[in-house]
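Blackboard transcription, Thursday session:
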Amino acid sequence: MAHAVVVRDVRKRFGAVQALAGVSLEVPRGEFFGLLGPNGAGKTTLISALGGLAIADSGRLEVMGHDVQGDYRAARRALGIVPQEVVFDPFFTVRETLEIQSGYFGLRRNGAWIDELLERLALASKADANMRSLSGGMKRRVMVAQALVHRPPVIVLDEPTAGVDVELRQTLWSFIRGLNEAGHTVVLTTHYLEEAQQLCSRIAMMKEGRIVALDTTARLLAAFSERVLRVKLERGALPAPLAERATRDAAGWWRFPIADMAHVEQALASLREAGAVLASLEVAEPELEQVFVRIMHREEPAARP
Amino acid sequence: MTGFPTLLYKEVLRFWKVGFQTVAAPVLSALLYLVVFGHALAAHVQAFPGVSYAQFLVPGLAMMAMLQNAFANSSSSIIQSKITGNIVFILLAPIAPAEIFAAYLLAAVARGIAVGLGVFVATLWIVPVPVEHPLWAFAFAAVGSALLAALGIIAGIWSEKFDQLAAFQNFLVMPLTFLAGVFYSVRSLPPFWQSVSRLNPFFYAVDGFRYGFFGQSDVAPWASIAFASGAFAALSWLALHLLRRGYKLRH
Ligand SMILES: Nc1ncnc2c1ncn2[C@@H]1O[C@H](COP(=O)(O)OP(=O)(O)OP(=O)(O)O)[C@@H](O)[C@H]1O
Ligand SMILES: [Mg+2]
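(Written on the board underneath:)
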């Protein structure tokens, strides 16, 4: 019962494409969970199966302990999905859209919460505008509001920031973060990996319908990425002990892994001793992007037939 | 029950907001049929004794308009939401298949009856017709609209593109409505075509509806209501089955 989302050995095939090839994961309540993977990895399919938009061929999916097929009403009440594609009903205004969506969940007097959503998502001035007249980013914000009208304990965002401007992206994240702090579980997919790194406490990476990595963000960063020192030399050469651990990129930067700042000082001292003159220097913190690239290019797990 | 009242409200609002196209336009075309055919065929057709051809035509045209508009309402609403993708907002909500079915059905019936009433009221000034059995007239209006509303739900779910829906409309709904005895009494047909007509469920809706006005019909109203309701029950079962399975809606 402790889990907000349970996915157990879920498979889904579309014709020749095995979109989900046996996915299992659990998201504890209150977690900010990231679901990452390249295009076509199966993220949206998994989310669709969770929301009942797709029907899994086999396996089990639960939201807040409710089976998404057998107990679909309770499961859907507990779930707010922001779909990846921007869709809207051109017949209605923003407020009508949100009132209708509330009604679908059996909520009759939801005006106060709708007003708050409009306010928090910077849509208040568009409340009475027809959906058709909104820009793409605004339509996406309405979709976020639609997913939240029933205050679901589990919020799933399928690339919510695609096409949303910088300022609103920040507003959106502070809002979602606030909901997460208030106890809502958040599942996020995004191709902006720095966003995922900042927000998610745990991350699953998918590739070709399988989970290829699943751990806390901190452990993934520690295992697959490191802090590196990058230097560019004006004059001189890299001393041998440093050159052993260093790699050089096309732009002429040398990069070598470092554990802490003491390392940096040692490296600089040995450069000075060797008579090298620095043109430029930077310390790069571990990055999820590096983790992602390494995991995606890693050898396939041996277990795969 | 959760989402049903809202879904019904939304579906009614959807056609009511553009009532000029969804209600007024079909009323106008029915009037045009009445004026043109009523005049052109008046000398050739005598359907019931004591009933002029133009009078005979009114209930048939009203029913034809109801059938076509009930079908158009549910089918176009579903296919539009599928193609634009906004059907996800209904599919993600905790609404039971039966609630979805009932909401689309009743909204389409409401449009059918609004159009039928419009035709009836508009013709009062041109060709007044008696209403001998208002309850029968209403029962057939409801069952006829519901029959086509259910068919429209099936067509909307099954079609993936607008041209598939158009094919449904042009090759099934139009022929069946035109061959339902709107413009003639099936008794005037050769025996073979009479029996073919009796396989057409739309015929019973038209014939029974006419009974409500003139107290005369080709088939007894009880038999007609039984056939029309039977066909409605069968289509409803199919529509509900498709909705429960998520056929072409939940992938
Ligand atoms: N309705 C569908 N019919 C057929 N194939 C589908 C359908 N939905 C998804 N697929 C296929 O399933 C695979 C997984 O798609 P999915 O949309 O889940 O990927 P994703 O991880 O969300 O990718 P992206 O990052 O591009 O959104 C893809 O190969 C896709 O072509
Ligand atoms: Mg996707």
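Lecturer's comment: Residues 166-181 of chain A form the longest helix (16 residues).
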